[in-house]
Every structure is written in C-alpha cells, then in structure tokens.
Amino acid sequence: MKLNLNIQPLSSWINVKNEPLIISGPCSAETEDQLLSTAHLLAATGKVSVLRAGIWKPRTRPGEFEGIGSIGLEWLKKAKAETGLPTAVEVANAKHVEEALAAGVDILWIGARSTANPFTVQEIADALKGVDIPVLIKNPVNPDISLWIGALERINNAGITKLGAIHRGFSSYEKSSFRNEPMWELAIQLKTLCPELPIINDPSHICGNRELIPYISQKALDLDMQGLMIESHIDPSVAWTDAKQQVTPAALEELIAKLSLRDPESNNEAFADKLAELRKQIDKIDDVMLQKLSERMAIVEKIGQYKRDSKVTILQVNRWDEILKKGTAFAKALKLDLGFTEKFLELVHAESIRKQTAIMNEGKTEEEIVEAAAAKA
Ligand code: PEP
Ligand code: MN
C-alpha cells in the first residue's frame, strides 16, 4: 500500500538555516521575558530555523498549568519581529487555529493527544479549509499508525499541502527508560508508505529527560529523518512544564554541534561497489536462512501429524525450555545478542505452534477459524 498525499517538499516551505532542520523553543510560553530571552539566545546560535512554543497545553490531569493562552501569541509575534524566526504553535481546536492564524503564526502542529482523536483532527481540518499554512502532525499517543495516517489524510484533504509528521514516541504500559517509547519501526513504516512525507523527530518528548536527547537525535538523523524539534528554555530548572527534558539554548547549540550528518546515499563509486558486494553476501545468507526455515517447518508439520495421530499435545514445555537453553548458549558462543536470539527463537516457535494447530484442526489455521466464526456470528 502506498499513501497518496498531495504534499510539497519541506524545503519549499521552511527556510532551513542550517542542516539539520531544528525547531526549538520552550515547551510552554510562560512569560514575555522567558519567551523573548529564550528566542534571542536560540536565534543567536544560528542553528535554529523555527521557534516553537506551547500556548495552549494539553495536560493529562486537570489543575496543572494549561498554557498562558492568547496573550502568548502576542509575545510570539514580538519574538518573530525581533529575531526573524518563524513561529510554530500547537493547535487543538478550531478556536486555536483561528487565533493562531490571526496572530500570524507561521506553522501549526497537532499534538499527540489530538491526533488520537479523529473528531478533533476533523475540527482542525475544517478550520483550515482554504488556508495555506504548514501543518505538522505528531504521532498519536498510542502506537496506532492508522490514526497518524488518518490525521495526515484529514488535514491533506482540507487542502493543506505543506505537511509533515513529527515522531514523538508512544506511551507504553511497560516501564521504560523513555517517557515515550520511540518504536522507530512505526515512523519507518510511515516513511515507507509515503517517502515524500517529511518526518521530524521530537527527542524531547521521547526521552523525557535531557541526558538521552543527544543519542535519540543522532539516531533520528541516522534513520534519515528530516529534522529535530527540541524543547529549549532559558532556565529549564524553573520551567512550568516538562522541566526535566528542556535544555538551555547553550546546551542545544552544543548538542547540535556534536551531531554527525551522514548522507543517505554516497556518490563515491568505490563505496557503492563495496556496499553492493556486502549486500550481495547478506542476500545470499538470507536465502540460505529462509531455505533452512522452510526445511524446519516441513519437519514441524511431520511432527504435528505424528502428535495428532498419537493424541499428544502440541506443546511440551520441557522441549521448548530445552530449545531456548540450547539456542541461547549457542548464540552466546557465536556472539549473537541474547535478547535478539530469544525473540527470534520465540518467533520460530510461535510459527511452529501455528502450523501444528492447523494440523490438529483439519488444516485450518487459527486466522481461518476466527474468520469463519466471525462470518457466522
Ligand atoms: C509539546 O510539544 O509540548 C507537546 C505537548 O507534545 P506532545 O503532543 O508530543 O505530547
Ligand atoms: Mn512539552
């Protein structure tokens, strides 16, 4: 499947001062002085292309600071006039859109909580009909790529062609070192569905702390993302929101200076030849691996038939334990990552069980059984 979005290249609507594209500014506009002094220091780095600030803050719990509101738009206007930086603001309803447009905001973004709600996204899309402004859409809070795509489609259908996505990670029930799990594979999937869609990474909301931001920023660039949105505050320790993850403008400058820019392609012929040769070797090994997996599954089927005819259960826990123990010990000797090996063996084992379950059910797979039941229901 390819995603059919009518979009203009990012370079046609953002003047990128310095590679990579950096959007920065405080999580929230708090006071005129805080916003202006931060904006001036960010502009002075010469590395920042867009000034961001939250004016209306979507808070998970009531009673927390919910944004300074419309007055902040006046401060942003002033910051733009004084620094020349175009501005970006989060909008979460039609009224925000109207106010931001009236205040001359240059770029709008839709936050993660809004992207998760098609009613909200549609309301914003309707408010944007006939307007020519860039819109960036953050991934939804939950790891559901359809919601992200749906939001991009709704905004694009409203006629917005200056469109981009922001990858800010996904909330997860499991405890993790990240505030929001990056789940890079979802951003990569979106890129694959629509290669011309610019994707900007937001390491601040992925990390939730300052320490991991350089690592995630570099990884995003290495995965060929088009830019970074990083929260910066003149004095993060007293920030009213997201204090732990904001960096000073000076720290931002240092962080950007340390990033390595790598090309997605190289024009060097020797490099291309060497890469092609190594890839050929990988392809050969992949072929052998798949061939061996196919042979393994053929044996699994035989075992399944044998178990069925002998009235023996599919799963013998001891046997699975033995496979895992032997496999991981071997993997260790081969210097393969243990976590990876376990996941791989689990996947192979799950497929073996799927195959044997089909054999126990007159050749029908679980998907077919579930589908047939659904059709009858
Ligand atoms: C933000 O950018 O300050 C913000 C609220 O982000 P998100 O929507 O990603 O949580
Ligand atoms: Mn924030």
UniProtKB/TrEMBL annotation:
It comes from the Bacteria. Residues 269-360 form the Chorismate mutase domain. It holds the Pfam family CM_2. One of its GO terms (molecular function) is transferase activity. SMART domains: CM_2. Its EC number is 5.4.99.5. GO terms for biological process: chorismate metabolic process. PROSITE patterns: CHORISMATE_MUT_2. This is chorismate mutase. Keywords: Transferase. InterPro entries: Aldolase_TIM (IPR013785), Chorismate_II_sf (IPR036263), Class-I_DAHP_synthase (IPR052899), CM_dom_sf (IPR036979), CM_II_prokaryot (IPR002701), DAHP1/KDSA (IPR006218).
